[in-house]
Automatic annotation (TrEMBL):
It is found in: Membrane. Signal peptide: none annotated. PANTHER family: MAJOR FACILITATOR SUPERFAMILY (PTHR23501), MULTIDRUG-EFFLUX TRANSPORTER RV1634-RELATED (PTHR23501:SF154). It is a multi-pass membrane protein. The chain crosses the membrane at residues 27-48, 60-84, 91-110, 116-137, 149-167, 179-199, 211-232, 238-254, 275-301, 313-334, 341-360, 366-392, 413-431, 443-463. One of its GO terms (molecular function) is transmembrane transporter activity. Keywords: Membrane, Transmembrane, Transmembrane helix. Residues 26-470 form the Major facilitator superfamily (MFS) profile domain. The keyword Signal does not apply. One of its GO terms (cellular component) is plasma membrane. Pfam families: MFS_1. This is Putative multidrug-efflux transporter.
Length: 485
């Protein structure tokens, strides 16, 4: 979605304007940066079963996504400061080289520990590429072109849902999963070479000096890593204290952030269920966390229980992203009354899909698993954009920028925590100890059913956000939202 003012300007800048102004080359570079980040998740989700079969590390599977997302969160927060310090073009080159280096490390990984180092570097580079892309659009292109450019970038996210599994599954089924990483390393290196040649010097105004939130991001990192570590050592004496420590670190992060005044990363009373804004952030965090089991463990369970190939499993997982994007576009224009119904329907669809995926993943049939993948994605497509719009519209005017930026950040945090928590449940259910059919069916049950209460909490919070809005909030403009992982 775009805001009302941007919609009014569409007539002033048609699609041909990108070519007429000579901007096509540098915009293509931005699309390449988006592609590298967007396709990465589907590529790795599809190729990881083959990688684990060769290098081991079943217990650490969830870390391949947790660390990637953590790197994305950290670098995304640093992107604006990096662009101001180095200049936009140098920042892009640095991000592309970091991503490429991470791909090389993953491609050469002799074991899962080295793979995780590469995944973290990929996350740092990929997250910065995405964040810098939005900085570049504001600096390099006229305002009347922004809506079309953002729409094109959204299409890149959708295309990645098809192409990521195709690439990962193709190489995995041939026993050449490392080639997928080499392919993306080459693309990132190409981006680093082309940026100085095609990207114009930035004309952005000098940003006011800001301090990088080192302490806050350290606390946030410790929260994610504590929970992720609990997924490896699954004895109660170790796991429970680590999960508790993760919750404490996240609380300390929120508390310190609340004292930063104008430098806050989150608006006032974020995650306070007593306020509509807090309910919106809880819905975002809870539903995103609950949905990650499918992305992380879906390919493994489809392969080990149902004998599905890497390519076929990849497309079943990718159906969620496609349904997310398609549904979001189809229902973007509903009115105020329809918006309430659409949001609540979406929240209920997510809970239903997560509840049903356990028994269906364990027993089949395959078409029902595909149907639940589509239902989960469609639920997010119905809910996500309206959830962002309402949270931002209900925030105090001086906090709308922080609310807008914090919602996608919360989504990334939810995905990272969800992957880590799914690792705890899966390993407790025996994922890393046995590969037999019965054990995997047990894992399939628990890795989804355990998250039904979390999803129900998120749906209840979303239900509240979908209620009547204060009159002042209706003046807020609808905002664009990031799509599926």
């Amino acid at each position: 979605m775009t805001d009302h003012h941007s919609e009014a300007s569409l007539g002033n800048a048609g699609w041909a304007a990108i070519i007429r102004t000579g901007q096509l080359g540098q915009f293509s570079l931005l699309c390449l940066g988006i592609w590298l980040h967007a396709a990465d998740t589907m590529l790795v989700a599809t190729a990881m079963p083959a990688a684990v079969a060769e290098i081991g590390g079943d217990r650490l599977v969830s870390w391949t996504l947790s660390l990637y997302l953590l790197g994305s969160i950290l670098s995304g927060a640093a992107a604006a400061l990096t662009a101001s310090a180095l200049g936009l073009r140098r920042a892009f080159v640095l991000a592309a080289l970091t991503y490429s280096s991470g791909c090389v490390v993953s491609a050469l990984a002799p074991d899962m520990i080295v793979m995780l180092i590469g995944r973290f570097a990929q996350g740092v580079g990929g997250g910065m590429l995405v964040a810098l892309t939005y900085v570049a659009i504001q600096r390099l292109f006229p305002k009347d072109m922004w809506p079309r450019l953002i729409a094109l970038m959204s299409a890149i996210w959708g295309a990645s849902a098809f192409c990521g599994p195709l690439i990962g599954g193709f190489f995995a089924d041939l026993g050449l999963w490392r080639w997928g990483f080499w392919m993306f390393a080459a693309q990132a290196l190409l981006l680093a070479v082309l940026v100085p040649a095609f990207m114009r010097p930035s004309k952005g105004e000098a940003a006011p000096a800001q301090r990088f939130p080192v302490v806050r991001l350290t606390l946030l990192s410790l929260a994610v890593l504590s929970v992720a570590t609990a997924g490896i050592y699954v004895t109660p004496a170790v796991s429970l204290p680590l999960v508790a420590a993760g919750g404490l670190f996240f609380y300390l992060f929120l508390r310190r952030d609340g004292s930063r005044g104008s430098e806050r990363m989150f608006p006032t009373r974020a995650f306070d269920i007593r306020t509509p804004i807090g309910a919106g952030f809880i819905a975002n965090l809870s539903l995103g966390t609950a949905a990650m089991s499918f992305t992380v463990y879906g390919p493994f369970l489809l392969n080990r229980i149902h004998g599905i190939s890497a390519l076929e499993a990849g497309y079943i997982i990718a159906a969620e992203s496609v349904a997310w994007s398609t549904t979001a576009i189809a229902f973007a224009g509903v009115g105020a009354v329809g918006e309430k119904v659409v949001m609540r329907t979406g929240a209920l669809m997510i809970v239903l899909a997560i509840a049903m995926l356990g028994p269906i993943m364990a027993e089949g049939p395959i078409w029902a698993i595909l149907a639940m993948s589509i239902a989960q994605g469609a639920g997010f497509g119905l809910l996500w954009g309206f959830l962002i719009r309402r949270v931002v519209a209900m925030a105090p005017e001086q906090e709308r920028d922080s609310a807008s930026a914090a919602m996608p950040t919360t989504q990334q945090i939810a995905f990272a925590l969800g992957a880590a928590l799914a690792g705890i449940v899966a390993n407790m259910a025996g994922f890393a100890d046995s590969g037999n059919h019965t054990a995997m069916q047990n894992v399939a049950w628990w890795v989804f059913v355990s998250f039904v209460p979390v999803a129900a909490l998120g749906a209840a919070a979303a239900w509240r956000v979908a209620g009547p809005m204060p009159a002042a909030a209706n003046e807020g403009q609808p905002l664009a939202g990031q799509g599926a992982p």
